[in-house]
């Protein structure tokens, strides 16, 4: 029995359940959060991309403050660390996308990747990303932030002054994709990327957020679940 079913069976109201937890996508249900409806990616016991990783619908929940929590954890104690992903039920395209990330970027495990991105399973995938990831090494000055219109990407180190929450924005037009990331603590300069002539959206393009492990490998030194907290996201069509 999943978390939602268990809480309902004990008499907890549906309103309360939906305010705190979510429903696995393999039950064909969606959950509301931050102005959008979302499905969860659940691959059962099968590793799938990205990574590949095993994705669990139980590794996402929304707290009483309406913050989204995404986990990577060995939830069954079987040595398999299960990642998390949510997928918007509506199609998206040109417009403005924002994410306010509560978890400090510099606190991420070296193998963890957070993606905030557009995607389609068709054609060229229409993948535009903001990622927190260490794809180019794990040294103290190695990049931790990625802006990309695949296959073109820009990797940036994150200053030590980025010690708290951060704000990330993508403005996607026919002419260009403009990415802006900035700290919400202190006065460090924002990080900005402009990519001209970006991919065009497809009718099947959606918005996704995922939290996963590079190469699907067990996170070195981790003794407890990895977690990321997101305050909010938004999508405003052009």
From TrEMBL:
Entries under SUPFAM superfamilies matching the protein: Concanavalin A-like lectins/glucanases
Top-level taxon of origin: Bacteria
Name by which UniProt lists this protein: GH16 domain-containing protein
Organism whose genome encodes this protein: Polyangium fumosum
